[in-house]
Write the structure tokens for this entry.
Amino acid sequence: MPISIFGFQALWSPYFLSMLIVLTVFYFLGTTKWRSKFEGSEPLKKHQAALFVTAIVVLYAVKGSPIDLLGHIMFTYHMIQMAVLYLIVAPLFLRGVPWWVWKKIIDHRTVKPVFNFFTKPLIALILFNGLFSIYHLPIVFDYIKMSMLLHSLYTIGLFIFALFMWWPLVNDMPEGRKLSGLKKVGYIFADGVLLTPACGLIIFASTPVYATFSDASAWLQAMELCVPTSTLQGLNLSGPELFSSMPVMEDQQLGGVIMKIIQEIVYGCMLAFVFFEWVRKDQQETEEMSASAMMQQQADYTK
């Protein structure tokens, strides 16, 4: 059965799209026309604008396009959403917003102590991966998926903790908490290890573990998160099997595998970036030391 039966609003989330457009307009106004209001501000760089726009487009793709609707029908699409939202959109968003905008936010007296605590590397790692794992416990997952308020709060909260988790790795603040090259490598490996148990639970489960993808009544209630109730009441639906030929178990296992694959690709790219940045800085420091030594030798020679 085609998913178009759920209507335009469920498929394309026009209200969410409007919100993202408004956010993008304020981003460009704040970083260009209103830049003088930020202390130490710099001209907006092209790569920053490109990263921010990419983050917004990808965010809409996974939370506003038909992928979001499919994420309530098939577990595979749900895990694609999770991986892209927390492992791709979050770091893009952090790098797309200029550091002087983040400084304005972080330096607020009520934000600074909270931010400094939650961006400590060990705490950021444990909290994000812990909350992600707890969310995918069957009893927690099904309970949250059947409540619009709880689902929205948990999704937003988990995204904030994803920002905390990525901050020590990708922030470009001139001053502030940063990890060295070797510590970044260890941080990425630890992040990958901590996310593995949640994926393992999903991949190696012997039975379907989520009622909101296997039980018709629970699934219909969860569908109210993205489909207007009036639309659902006008349809005669028996369950997610109407829209997918993939068995529930295979869908569940594929979702766990895809989550792990995307994680490995993202973290692999991040490791490569960290490694080459580390090598570049090391070469730059070596060249500076060599130049300084040569200048000292010339000074000694002239004496």
